[in-house]
Amino acid sequence: MNPFNNFINDNNVSTGTPDLVPAFNNKINLGWNYKNELFVDAYYLHTSDMINSVAFQNNDTNVLVQQSVNLNYEFQYSVDATIYKMLNENWLTYTSISAFYMENEINASQSPLNVQKSNTTGFFIDTTNIFDLSKDGTFKMNVNATYVSSILFGTYKYENMLMSSIGVSKSLWNNRAILTASFSDIFLSQNQPFVTRYQNQDNRELTLPETQLLSIGFTYKFGNFRLENRDAEELEDQGRTGKKTKGF
User: Fold this and answer.
1) In angstroms, how far apart are the furthest CA atoms of the chain?
2) pLDDT, tens digit, for every residue of 53-108?
3) Quick count: other Cβ atoms within 10 Å of Cβ 145?
4) What is the pLDDT of residues 31-60, one digit of tens each?
5) Please, are residues 90 and 74 in contact by the beta-carbon 8 Å criterion?
6) Shortest CA distance to 117 belongs to which of 134, 131, 105?
């Protein structure tokens, strides 16, 4: 809500809006599940005065202003399916799939037409798979992938993003230690541009954080792991209550 300008550079400014108002959601959801393994949901979500960051491009001064504003509305409807299942004794999968439509409307302050609608139809899938690579359960592999075909953030559209990772873990010395290794953004496809394109607006934003990383970790549990629970000696309270308690 801070109205002061934050200059990212001479042509890119970020600012807040003092007169923001609260957003309100209305949602209708129908759900069904099968044996607590397959879950299906269909819903409609309408948000009035949704708060989002929107870019307004002044074509006379060549200044791009990123501003938090109240959208007139945003709505989406979606059909989602999630499965959580042991496919065999060594393979656990958790997978979610969604097909959706999104639409919103803003007051386009820098455009000839003062009102602008944006919409997209998208597809989303997220899957996490855990594989047990040893008979004693001490060596595991985790594979994750998330794909989004298209999604709206205000007037920005984000397309064809794929996040991926793979990791392994090995338990050592009766689970006293764990050795892990993981590699993220396998296909270097996580960083995709945000694009705004309507009326006299045409701009894009691309950030490039470090997403392709190899991480190695080692965890060791210190302490006296030989302690065992033993029956406590009879206490005065036990004599009164007739109950036996447990202690360390």
Assistant:
1) 89
2) 888 888 888 888 888 889 999 999 999 999 998 888 889 999 999 999 999 999 88
3) 17
4) 999 988 999 999 999 999 999 888 888 888
5) no
6) 105
**CA Rg value for the chain:** 27
> How far apart are alpha carbons 246 and 224 in whole angstroms?
19
Task: Give me 86's structure tokens.
Answer: 């042991």
Residue whose C-alpha is closest to residue 209's, from 183, 188, 194, 186: 188
Strands 139-153 and 24-34: unpaired
Q: Which residue has the higher pLDDT, 238 or 196?
A: 196
How far is 239 from 234, CA to CA, in rounded Å?
A: 8
Q: Which segments within the chain are labelled E, that is strand?
A: 6-9, 12-15, 24-34, 38-48, 51-58, 63-70, 73-88, 91-107, 115-132, 139-153, 156-172, 177-184, 194-198, 201-205, 214-220, 230-231, 246-247
In contact, 197 and 176? CB cutoff 8 Å:
no
Q: Measuring CA to CA, how many Å separate 32 from each of 38, 39, 79, 98, 223?
A: 8, 6, 12, 15, 47
Question: What is the pLDDT at residue 227?
Answer: 57
Task: Give the sheet arrangement for strand 63-70, strand by strand.
Answer: 6-9, 12-15, 63-70, 51-58
DSSP string, 70-115: E-SEEEEEEEEEEEEEEEETTEEEEEEEEEEEEEEEEE-TTSSSSE
